[in-house]
Write a structure and sequence with these properties.
Structural class: alpha/beta
Low-confidence stretches: none
Number of helices: 5
CATH class of one domain: Alpha Beta
CATH topology of one domain: Rossmann fold
Radius of gyration: 16 Å
Length: about 130
Amino acid sequence: MKIIVAKTAGFCWGVSRAIDLVMKAANEGHSPIYTDGALIHNPQVLKVLEESEIHVSSNIDNVSEGTIAIRAHGITPERRTHLKEKGLKIVDATCPHVGGIQGIVKKHTHEGYSIVIVGERGHPEVIGLLG
């Protein structure tokens, strides 16, 4: 039997970029690094990141030293402001596609459009879009 793996198998480039950004920060000595929730949805990768002092934090408000990484799914503008006010180094690993969609939503909202978002309530990417 021959098994063929699709060319598109694996992580999307936004997830690969997020992993590369936090690993680069760790290699440059910006540890410990705390991600504002899971950086990506992959427990095996999160375990490898943990071994490089990149920790998933369920309560980033308790972090007082180190670096904060914004997850690939993005965050709300209010959350971004809050993290900046902490005065810690920030690595923004938001997927550029997600950031672009956030910008489109913001632009059209300011122009008076009603935005309808279909997605899983409570999913980090949906929360980021609602911001």
